[in-house]
Amino acid sequence: MAKGIKILTEHINTPGIETFEVYKKSGGYAAVEKVIKKMTPEEVVEEVKKSGVRGRGGAGFPMGMKWSFLAKPEGVPRYLVCNADESEPGTFKDHFLMKSIPHLLIEGMIVSSFALGAHKSFIYVRGELMYVIRILEKAIEEAKAAGYLGKNILGSGYDLELVVQPGGGAYICGEETALLESLEGKRGNPRNKPPFPAVKGLYQSPTVVNNVESIANTPWIINNGGDAYAALGIGRSTGTKLISASGHIKNPGVYEIELGLPVEEFLYSDEFLGGIRDGHHLKAVVAGGSSVPILPANLFLKTANGEDRLMSYESLSDGGFASGTMLGSGGFIAMDETTCIVRNTWNFSRFYHHESCGQCSPCREGTGWMEKVLHRIEHGHGNMRDIDLLVDVAKKIEGNTICPLGDAAAWPVASAIRHFRDEFEWHVKYPKEATMKGAVYVKEEVLV
Amino acid sequence: MDTPQLIKVTIDGQEVHVPVGTTIMEAARQIGPDVAPPAMCYYKPLKGSGGKCRACLVKVSQGSEKDPRPMPKLVASCITGAQDGMVVENFTSPEVVEARKGVVEFLLLNHPLDCPVCDQAGECHLQDFAFENGVGTTRYEEERRTFEPENLGDNIQLHMNRCVLCYRCVYTADQITDKRVHGVMYRGDHAEISTYINNVIENDFSGNVIDVCPVGALTDKTYRFKSRVWFSKPVDAHRDCDKCCGKVNLWYKGDEVIRVTARKNQWGEVEDFICNSCRFDSKKTADWVIEGPTKVKRASVISANKYPKNEIKKPAFALDYAAHNFKKINDDRPYYKNLKEVKGSEDYKALMEQNAEFFPKETSKK
User: Fold this and answer.
1) Which of A311, B177, B200, B224 could potentially form a cystine with B153 if both were Cys, beta carbons 3.0 to 4.6 Å apart?
2) Residue-range domain boundaries for chain B
3) Higher model confidence: residue A334 or residue B354?
4) Three-state SS for B134?
5) Among B138, B149, B150, which Cα is nearest to B113's?
6) Mean pLDDT, to the nearest integer, of A246-260?
7) Given CB atoms, is B103 within the 8 Å cutoff of chain A?
8) Rounded CA gap, B139 and B169, in Å?
9) ipTM, interface predicted TM-score of the complex
10) Strand ranges (DSSP E) for chain B?
11) Per the CB < 8 Å rule, is B106 touching A365?
12) Does residue B73 belong to the interface with chain A, where contact is any CB pair within 8 Å?
């Protein structure tokens, strides 16, 4: 397969791609015609399973497997819900995809709904993105007018209604069961699992919740076959991935990369990020959105065994949490030596404190506690024992909560202390220097 | 042949046979209070409760007979179904004990610890839970979170600062009463039980939120500051009531009924919910048919002074130990020694004068 293949962003620069005509002309809606006219739902699920595409929302669970878990009792409706509540700091790929090429998501929704036998599907969009909701609604109207949506699609007898639902702007509603609660019109609290949404989801019916990017991949998989998709990428990380890159790099933005691309090439080649801004050095990287562990530059470019790291699920998590991280949702944040890790960690922690739903006690109380302690250290009132306290609190939150928000709040703190402990200690030992404007502790050997 | 519906669960080394669909918590409760995990939010009579406080976390070291893999994380026992052949570690697992210590610490972080003035003290689940599973100190140095007081009407007193957000009162209002006017507002550590807007909780069964509350967040306004729980004497009583079962506990102080509550089982769960006219309006002995004194667990603080003297065994070794150690206390503490010296010093007098507005003059004391 040719290098630099684009699946999602192939036509993204075509003028007028957000309109139905231009999208159709550039090969759009071919997948809908193919599945409706030539394929059965089971065949579609089989193709997706073959492709090995993994959930792009962060957890990386194989999408075909998720689809095959869907319970199919008689007489009960099934639902497909698209999770477009992207609010992880550092991640903005779904936003970009939806506003630039809305019909790709609509097409993916039709294909996926057909495969799952859903007659009513939802796109739950983050409430802040009102203009994207209008773009999506316009796209749905156009698709309806062309007969690709609504009753009796393309004369096949298959009905599908697509609903765009704005969220209230809560990070927690990106968790699938909280999203379903919110969609039902309730308070967005995550549910206890089991039962999983595949058995009892929206309105107590079997439901599949998928990320925007995952769903947007399905048309290509149908058009080109699951095997073609599986040929892309490396190992169990098949296909391409959108990476939203931000921070101290020359070319921030959304990039589509084939999984397995060496990290070094992604970071330094002019085709992608173009390297760190002039005169500065890379200090640390958050590879997959704020909730994954932060890594120092040297560990990010090479694994603990000295191998080159690749942009893939396996390579990034190589070494576990001791020396690895996660691909997560692809929110790539690069930091140079002017970044204070303590301040950065405090900022992340403040976010999770603000976004905790307050349902289960470790997360409700622990996130606030960590934020306050980090605030104290950052502002020069810290104590040596506070550093160990943070590690202990993070350990007691992690894994003991209802939903993964507790883990997401604990990992950045635990990893920052694991890799940058001396920076925390410097803040405690020299509060005057540490609170001076622009003062940053730099250890030369981590820089690259 | 065994009945096929029963499954075998091992909890802390003790086997129990329970029907399919039983949770680990219920299975453990069948064995007895020694292995039952603590619960702050789970409440059996309320559907959907549980999973929130994480006090009942247990370790599943064998998933089931068919799939003996252990579960990767600690699970909340109140919402996790038991499987055939499951092996559960509760108090025997150091991991669980450690996690529970963490939960106690988290729950007490922002708790005001105003037990000396709290009406719930003595029958408070948080007290029991913290005493049994926690550590005696806190590592929290920040200011505690507080809420604006809110008036819920003449019968129910809300102390939001004490709340642990178990959601029990929300479920009670949903499932026992017709119309729920209170709920959880805001999110994170600012989530609070409140009404929209400044509403009053008023219906025939609203008083039950007091009984289900594990802490002193919702207490009986008509009983407020009347007595400590252990000074009053519980008595089983019933009456003909057209709204509820009419089976209650009367709490006596002298000859006076100071409080009426529903009867609770050994897990602190209400056996039958009672109506407001039983709870708030029938506070005369003449309203009730007395059945006899309520059995109080010996371990409970409420049992103080309620057992005949000949039934109480004094722990002789403990008294000896205390007497022995008392003699060792050296009361030459420097503070007492120097107090007079300090008070006579010029510095002290100058300091007192400087801040005279904060100290009432000694002459005004009687």
Assistant:
1) B200
2) 6-102, 110-225, 227-330, 334-364
3) A334
4) coil
5) B138
6) 94
7) yes
8) 30
9) 0.91
10) 6-11, 14-19, 57-62, 75-76, 86-89, 156-158, 182-185, 192-195, 218-220, 233-238, 247-253, 256-262, 289-293
11) yes
12) yes
Phi-psi region of A121 (alpha: psi -120 to 50; beta: other; left: phi over 0): beta
Look at residue A2 in the predicted model and tell me its pLDDT.
Answer: 43
C-alpha to C-alpha distance for A272 and A311, rounded to whole angstroms: 13
- What is residue B313's predicted lDDT score, i.e. its pLDDT? 65
Contacts of B142 in chain A (CB under 8 A): 369, 372-373, 376
CATH T-level fold of B6-102: Ubiquitin-like (UB roll) (3.10.20)
Domain B110-225 has CATH 3.30.70.20: yes
Whole-Å CA distances, A309 to A150, A224, A392, B359:
46, 29, 30, 68
- Looking at residue B311, what is its pLDDT? 65
Please check whether residue A372 touches B, CB under 8 A.
yes
Tokens of A52: 């090995």
Q: Judge contact between B170 and B182, C-beta under 8 A.
A: yes
Measured between beta carbons, which residues in chain A are less than 8 angstroms from residue B187?
170, 172, 355-358
Task: Tell which residue, A285, A272, A269, A268, has the closest CA to residue A241.
Answer: A272
Report which of residues B5 and A280 the model is more confident about. Answer: A280
Q: Which of B258, B265, B175, B270 is nearest to B213 (CA)?
A: B270
User: Which of B105, B163, B170 should we substitute to test contact with A (largest number of A Cβ atoms within 10 Å)?
Assistant: B105
Residue B104 touches partner A, C-beta closer than 8 Å:
no
Alpha-carbon gap, residue B132 to B46, rounded angstroms? 25
Which structural domains are found in chain A, ordered by start?
20-231 (3.40.50.11540), 242-336 (3.10.20.600), 341-446 (1.20.1440.230)
Distance, in Å, from the CA atom of A49 to the CA atom of A225, rounded to the nearest integer, reads: 11
Pairwise CB contact (< 8 Å): A360 & B54:
yes
Q: Which residues contact A440 (CB under 8 A, 6 or more apart)?
A: A337, A338, A339, A340
Tokens of A9: 């962003």
